Amino acid sequence: MDFAHCLPIWNKLTADQQEHILSVSEYRRVRAGTILHDGSPECMGLILVSSGQLRAYMLSEEGREVTICRFFERDICLFSASCVMPNMQFDIFISAEKDCELWIIPACLYKNLMNESLPVASYSCDLISHHFSELMWLMEQIMWKKFDERLAKFLLEESALENTPSLTITHDKIANHMGTAREVVTRMLRYFQNEGMVRLTRGSVEITDVKKLALLQGE
Length: 219
Prior knowledge:
It contains 8 helices and 11 strands. By secondary structure, it is an alpha+beta fold. The protein folds into 2 domains: 3-137, Sandwich (Jelly Rolls); 145-216, Arc Repressor Mutant, subunit A. The radius of gyration is 19 Å and the shape is elongated. The two termini are 36 Å apart. The model has no long low-confidence stretch (mean pLDDT 87).
């Protein structure tokens, strides 16, 4: 998918702006597991996803991870360009969960576009609001939801995302997504297995009773 089809506000730009953004944006192909942004204050630019899947996460001082959100085809990630968000600084890591094709839009260029174009500024405000909502939702889940509910929701979302009930995923990876210890995940998954909701094998989790998991997460 080319740049023009990936950028939602492409038709809102002038011809000169379109030509400029095409000339300076960097196209990349990255392998799954690549760290694109390491949580530093450096403003690398906006990431526009053409294909694949990115993960944004935070890292505690003890090395524990928690997923904030994911980015898919035609999504734009602002977390790698915090300098375009005044007074909003986050130590956020961004990695490729799958092989990706993407563009890096220079932050200085995008900031100029925000100042020049009302549609770009409006779209950017919507993006910032969406990112902030993702963070608030995450805090609400961690603070108020029981872990069994969160884990059930995570497994169902992963199954829908991968379009299969058989998930190739380790307990460590689940723990990293959910901001908890692997041992906590293992104990809860074993409970799920005893209740007939999942079947556990090395490196995978198979959902065996979708209805039970859905009831557990409150849906």
